[in-house]
Specification:
Structural class: mainly alpha
CATH superfamily: HPT domain
Largest sheet: none
Order of helices and strands: HHHH
Number of strands: 0
Distance between the termini: 24 Å
CATH topology: Four Helix Bundle (Hemerythrin (Met), subunit A)
CATH class: Mainly Alpha
Length: 93
């Protein structure tokens, strides 16, 4: 993998993870905020896709797990509870 591409990925991921931390904390306070949930889902989806493109399969798998939980929340299959949010936070960490 090209070092420049990897550095760009790391910088972008750092920004995305910072945004996720902020938004996940906000979601804990506003568990019915569908726009916030959609934004979190999109950010994790972006990270997952970039990992796939770069061949970072283990990291992509972790992002995919978080995306699955968020998808269930978004689709109403899983309530946005502190326990469910903790699962998402674990995938972000």
């Amino acid at each position: 993998m090209d070092d420049e591409i990897l550095q760009e990925f790391l910088a972008e991921s750092w920004e995305n993870l910072s945004q996720l931390d902020t938004e996940i904390v906000a979601l804990e306070k506003e568990p019915t905020n569908a726009d916030l949930l959609a934004s979190i889902f999109r950010t994790i989806h972006t990270i997952k896709g970039t990992c796939g493109f770069l061949g970072l399969t283990e990291l992509g798998s972790v992002a995919h797990s978080g995306e699955n939980v968020l998808g269930k929340m978004r689709d109403g299959e899983l309530a946005v509870t502190p326990d469910a949010i903790s699962i998402v936070l674990e995938s972000v960490d």
